[in-house]
């Protein structure tokens, strides 16, 4: 049965125009992903009605290729101009952009393409192997587990903060506080909306990320002369050196791909979260390597392998229960339903060949991303040599336009401007941007699932300890929180602490 | 001198980008109705049920009128942002929005400065029925057994969406109108997550749409339709009145999906739109799409019928839930 389905899936993929739609989808996705603020949601939304005339598999493969292409495309502007094309590539800026400033943009772009392709491919192969068990896997995770995973991400703040812990925790807490604006799922009372219904849904964290990274950096560049890559540094590095860097970090690459897949499978999260968690884990496992944040290639690998891994993960709840993990998968779900492909058991029984064909399309898509990334996209490094007097106004206009495009809400444009200024001062005074982002993106997931868990347990916290998965997650959180303290104590007793 | 050059460079690049951005705008025209592009403001997100219905139906209406249609999702504030946008649009018959009857709740609680009966209503195209689903591992085989289990305290929680959403109003109706004494209401973010929670045994029962339940029939027990008229998706499913309940909760157990136009849209244009809607719903294109995708499309009445349902919702919902709690 499975073997027949696999062959049937390959047949769907290689017959007719399907491969053509896959390539078109990837190209559109990469272009849309590159432009700040546009991202996969807008690309999918525009493409959705256009798929009406296509057959089901072609339509879904086109849509999913846009999604996958955008995940990779987001890294291009993130590396070249510190402006994440998508929220999924925000963590890529942390090391990718410093690499570009050091004249290593080509290497960073090639690392991004290779890590995206490898992380994406590993997660898709795993997804194909897990297909018969997906429903059971989804049912193993409920509200307590989702809360603990979000809390684990927040706890990673203690690991990623490399300067002042007080400043890091302050930034994280402020991010959490901002995430409480709007109407929470669990209660009917909106908070901090000041009777303005543009605030009813809270701040769009994609706009916050665009502001902090893109506008914040542009404000900083205003005070500098010349181009993004420092003028006394010539462009160096090659596509080959990028591939070598990824091959030399197999554990970071594969682990990041799986982190992306795992986070992607959690409803309400997505690549905007997974790239930061994966980055934080890379920092943690790197033993607090001070090079992170100043051009460490592992930072780019962690973020990029994770965001493409997220694509496969996000399909798990979407296909098995019709639960979209993110805005992009919500539109993808709409595409499935528009073409009579209903999520649930049918996609893994009668229509399993279509499901497999979608997974294979993603796999082929990752190979295409690798080729395009290495041989075409790396030519864009010359953007970093253009005078910032041209770059700055273009980025500000495109970022503002992209913010407005998020939901046609002027609040998002104001958010971008405010957080641009705010981000500039955060960076200037060494407040951890990652801590802030972890707080603002994980806050709603943590709160919603905490409230629900406590409703289910009549207020008892025992719900976070009484089953094996919650227990393990709780112990992991404890270990993450305690480890920096232990490290300080150890240093003190060794006489090396300060 | 270099500074002046830098200012000119920056200004030039900025103006160039703005001009490119400006190219995204559109034109206008006027002739016999309909002779221009329709503009559908969808107050909910892309890919959702309302979004898909609107795109399919208005594409067909536009095709039949030999004009085009543009879709714009203006989301936020539980649909109120998009509805407000429609309210302030020119009443020329070219701009429409979908309306779902439970959306009267956010209009009541947020008080945007207008009421739903000020709009012109084109007609209704389908209705969706809510169903009660339970965890298959529990030995609950019909509505009566669920009621007894809540009564005996064997089960306590019931799942739905955020307070003020239709399945929350329905859960409250089950308690206040039918006397089913559930203890705690657990809110999830949509029918999919509710089904997952019920299938995993996280909550014993939940209220979801019939279409969502149909996708997960193998993982949950679909027990009862919460509309006395039954569920088109599950024609053989018992309805709550089969168990001797007299109280009527149909106003919320089934929700009406319709289209509306800004206030003061002329009668003749509403009539033309209504006729176009009827023709589109009967077209082979839409009926075969409905068959292929498992959706149900049927003309269910014009302005009078839609207003009757919306006004009943406006009247009865505040009797069931305290709107001050969800303001």
From TrEMBL, chain A:
<dbReference type="Pfam" id="PF01970">
    <property type="entry name" value="TctA"/>
</dbReference>
<feature type="transmembrane region" description="Helical">
    <location>
        <begin position="197"/>
        <end position="215"/>
    </location>
</feature>
<protein>
    <recommendedName>
        <fullName>DUF112 domain-containing protein</fullName>
    </recommendedName>
</protein>
<feature type="transmembrane region" description="Helical">
    <location>
        <begin position="59"/>
        <end position="81"/>
    </location>
</feature>
<dbReference type="InterPro" id="IPR002823">
    <property type="entry name" value="DUF112_TM"/>
</dbReference>
<keyword id="KW-0812">Transmembrane</keyword>
<feature type="transmembrane region" description="Helical">
    <location>
        <begin position="319"/>
        <end position="338"/>
    </location>
</feature>
<feature type="transmembrane region" description="Helical">
    <location>
        <begin position="431"/>
        <end position="450"/>
    </location>
</feature>
<feature type="transmembrane region" description="Helical">
    <location>
        <begin position="390"/>
        <end position="411"/>
    </location>
</feature>
<feature type="transmembrane region" description="Helical">
    <location>
        <begin position="108"/>
        <end position="131"/>
    </location>
</feature>
<feature type="transmembrane region" description="Helical">
    <location>
        <begin position="137"/>
        <end position="161"/>
    </location>
</feature>
<feature type="domain" description="DUF112">
    <location>
        <begin position="20"/>
        <end position="438"/>
    </location>
</feature>
<keyword id="KW-1133">Transmembrane helix</keyword>
<feature type="transmembrane region" description="Helical">
    <location>
        <begin position="168"/>
        <end position="185"/>
    </location>
</feature>
<feature type="transmembrane region" description="Helical">
    <location>
        <begin position="12"/>
        <end position="39"/>
    </location>
</feature>
<keyword id="KW-0472">Membrane</keyword>
<feature type="transmembrane region" description="Helical">
    <location>
        <begin position="471"/>
        <end position="493"/>
    </location>
</feature>
<feature type="transmembrane region" description="Helical">
    <location>
        <begin position="358"/>
        <end position="378"/>
    </location>
</feature>
